[in-house]
Amino acid sequence: MIRIVQRTARCLRLACGVILLFVAVTARAHRTSDSYLTLRVEGTKITGQWDIAMRDLAQHLNLDANGDGEVTEDELNAKQKEVSAFATNHLQLKIDDIARPFRINEMLIEQFADGPYAVVRLTLDAPETAKAVGIEYSAFFDTDPQHRGLMRLEAGGRTQTAVFSPDKRAQNFPLSSLSHWRQFLDFVREGVWHIWLGFDHILFLLALLLPSVLRRGESGWEVVDGFRPALIKVVKIVTAFTVAHSITLSLATLGVAQLPSRLIESTIAASVILAAFNNLYPIFPERGWIVAFVFGLVHGFGFANVLADLGLARQTLALALVGFNVGVELGQLAIVAVFLPFAFSLRGSWVYQRLTFRFGSAVIVLLAATWMVERIWDFKILPF
User: Fold this and answer.
1) 180 or 330, which is more confident
2) What distance in Å separates the CA atoms of residue 252 and residue 264, rounded to the nearest whole number?
3) Nearest one of 149, 48, 66, 152 to 103, comparing CA atoms
4) Cβ of 76: how many Cβ atoms within 10 Å?
5) Segment 324-383, tens digit of pLDDT
6) What is the average pLDDT value for the chain, to the nearest integer?
7) What is the DSSP letter of 351?
8) What is the DSSP letter of 165?
9) Domain limits of the chain?
10) Cα–chain-centroid distance for residue 194?
11) How many angstroms separate the CA atoms of 117 and 55, rounded?
């Protein structure tokens, strides 16, 4: 009787864990929101460009006057006062801790890898004795805590980078020295959040990890006898995915190889479908690492978009690339560290084999199929 009660309690804990995981991920999941700020210090003048995703800006300002789903430069210029007010209210520049207003010289629209962006070009006067530039950035944080502002500052032939987030809205950048360690840590942190906030990346990884505590037998899926076989499976999957996406992340970020954004996002959705469908009707039994490698190549292109659009110089780009990649791996390992012991301890329960493994894989297939249709035909069904 005691064993039955203990087993039931464990099953209930697992069920609650699965529900909380799906609720938490769903609540946070949507298309990555980024903007790109570039500043150049040249003598007594600072010139800059702030690239804001049109999809984000349109949620705050009614830019699409004719309601055709696209914002033209004429429509953008018609709302110049509103856009200027948004920029000045959410971006403040300081020279040696003294706030200085910037002038907006031009607004236009440019096409980035993930869609159209409003480009706001600005200038700011600075004294010759300027020692530091301070930036306070608060765009979209109040409505979207997942938003990130990526900054590149060029001064004296050197480049500094930084990432603005809800807990790092104000940062100061000395013009006489560079902190490569701080830049590296910023991109490590951003890589971790990128994998944690990427719903499709997480579901792809989970779909591959779900059968790690099972093995394919003559009568179907059976539980593994020990922790070591499960760990070996996970190591193969994570290593294959890491090697694959590191290759394409590097190639895409350095501009060696590029693919259209819609093709990348659609193929990522297809990879999630195949990984989860393989759990229900095994196409590659005990070969999850092959799926991880092949589609990991595509996921690498998806990771690269956040760095490629920043337009960093080669030296700085290498630092950001390594830091971001390390962050992605740490984010993956954190998911594995939580999932594997939890799944192994309950691998023989009906909650894991029926609810988590089979029903969970079916839900993943359904979600990913919906994403793929959305991304191929460029329309929205799901709110995330």
Assistant:
1) 330
2) 12
3) 48
4) 24
5) 889 989 999 999 999 999 999 999 998 999 899 999 999 999 999 998 998 888 767 776
6) 84
7) I
8) B
9) 2-30+190-377, 34-178
10) 3
11) 8
Q: Which two tokens stand for residue 200?
A: 């499709």
CA 171 to chain centroid, in Å, comes to: 22
- Residue at 172: amino acid letter: N
Residue 312 pLDDT exceeds 90: no
Helix (H) or strand (E) holding 222: strand 220-223
Tokens encoding 242: 């890491």
pLDDT number for residue 36? 94
Query: What's the residue count for the chain?
Result: 384
pLDDT of amino acid 319: 81
- Residue that has been written with the tokens 């200027």 in this structure: 84
Q: What is the pLDDT of residues 26-76, one digit of tens each?
A: 333 335 678 999 999 998 899 999 999 998 998 889 898 888 878 998 999
Q: Give the span between the Cα atoms of 316 and 190, in whole angstroms.
A: 15
Q: What CATH architecture is 34-178?
A: Sandwich (2.60)
Task: Provide the edge-to-edge strand list for the sheet that holds 115-125.
Answer: 103-112, 115-125, 45-53, 34-42, 148-155, 158-164
Strand partners, 118: 52, 109
Planar angle of CA 248, 306, 133, nearest 5 degrees: 135
**Are the CB atoms for 266 and 110 separated by under 8 Å?**
no
Q: Which amino acid is at 214?
A: L
Please check whether residue 63 is in contact with residue 72, taking contact to mean a CB–CB distance below 8 angstroms: no
DSSP output for 168-218: B-EEEEESS---HHHHHHHHHHHHHHHHHH-HHHHHHHHHHHGGGGEEEET
CA distances from 366 to 238, 272, 276, 296, 380 (A): 24, 10, 10, 21, 15
Structure tokens at 189: 């942190």
pLDDT for the residue 237? 92
